[in-house]
Amino acid sequence: MKTLNPSVLLFASKSATVVPQIGEALEETGISFECTYNVQKACDYLQSERPCLLVIDTEADDARAVELCRKVKKIKEELLVETFFLIDDNKNFELQWNWFKYGVDEFGTRDTNVNLIICRIQCILKRCRMGTKVIPKQGFLIDRERYMVFVNGQEIALPRKEFELLMLLSSRPEKVFTRDEIFRQVWGNRLIVGDRTIDVHIRKIREKIGEDYIITVKGVGYKFQDR
Predict the structure, then answer these.
(1) 5-130, which class in CATH?
(2) What is the CATH number of domain 159-224?
(3) What is the pTM of this model?
(4) Cα 127 to Cα 124: distance, rounded to the nearest angstrom
């Protein structure tokens, strides 16, 4: 897993209406960004600069945007860049569903006040900065920057979803996370995963880090505790 930087890639066609304003705002705040409408240049920037956010401001049927999203989707296991797509409205659910399949994470509408869109971008960047912290526990350490887990000094390899689930639980020790909270924050939508998904992931995590860190609260969910 590559380290992400709190920077932005702006992918915009000549007809873009919002990205130019976003670029001006980012420039004023000193945030690193790149703006392009070339798919190869966009991919090169993703690999070299590792931005944590990709903002797309094109027509909804733009073939270049589709191509880029598909390429990004293929590398998301390696580079967890978020994709924010600007659309004309949020009423065409079938169109949005197709873009979700292409790998888009969330949508914004162009008629939204640009300051609100910029605030949303800044929140994502802030989360990216916070994600670089190392979280130590007793005999246990999560390195969010490198997506690594250590137990008693030994490195433990976890797939993406197992890591994100462990990171969620350990972010607030002793808090009981309900199943619905876990589905929403790790998977985003309960409807697309089975009821046993959490249980299977918890079992696999326990097999790797030990049985004592994650506690089952029957009928409610799970919590993380320091040994």
Answers:
(1) alpha beta
(2) 1.10.10.10
(3) 0.58
(4) 5
